[in-house]
Write a structure and sequence with these properties.
Largest sheet: 9 strands, antiparallel
Helix content: 10-25%
Number of strands: 9
Order of helices and strands: HHEHEEEEEEEE
Radius of gyration: 18 Å
């Protein structure tokens, strides 16, 4: 997964310009809302100009969590425009995409699928010190879902149905802590 994250960051840097990112900030971050759902996560926010940044946060649900028979893996990618010309330290708005894969067991069936929330968000980053920030954001948008409903019996799995769904929903809820490295 580390290699995939590196490739994604390189692609995003090439899109937004590497020259501008050389003297800017880098922050390591985590989403406390994710931890509250027993989904450990770690991410990075990289300034690409004096008023924009890109972020990537990797989520992986904890085994044997309160979700019991459910697990998921997700990678949140985002672009942020910072108002006030102070990246990592002011009001921002942005766009996010969070491709995810999940599997959950309900009675004698499983639901396996992929989802892609795409949305816009707004938030604020509160400085606690020169290096430490608290960040709050909320996003809404479209959720694209594809899942298979699988019947489980005698160690055999058989696809009973597949469904595609598109809905309007929250796409990002973040209460995070970030530490500015540079």
């Amino acid at each position: 997964m580390k290699q995939k994250l590196t490739v994604i960051v390189i692609v995003l840097l090439s899109v937004f310009g590497v020259k501008e990112a050389k003297a800017q900030g880098i922050a390591v971050k985590t989403n406390l809302a994710g931890w509250a759902m027993l989904a450990p996560n770690i991410g990075v926010d990289l300034c690409v100009s004096e008023c924009s940044s890109i972020e990537a946060i990797f989520y992986k649900s904890a085994a044997d969590s309160w979700l019991k028979n459910a697990n998921f893996t997700a990678l949140q990618l985002g672009y942020r425009y910072w108002f006030g010309r102070e990246p990592l330290n002011s009001l921002f708005c942005g766009v996010t995409a969070t491709p995810a894969r999940y599997e959950m067991k309900i009675k004698d069936s499983k639901r396996k699928g992929d989802c892609l929330p795409l949305g816009v968000n707004i938030g604020y980053c509160y400085p606690l010190s020169d290096k430490l920030n608290i960040e709050v954001s909320y996003g809404i948008g479209m959720l694209y879902l594809y899942e298979d409903i699988v019947s489980v019996s005698d160690q055999r799995e058989e696809v009973k149905a597949s469904r595609h769904k598109t809905s309007f929903s929250p796409t990002n809820i973040e209460i995070g802590i970030s530490y500015i490295i540079k």
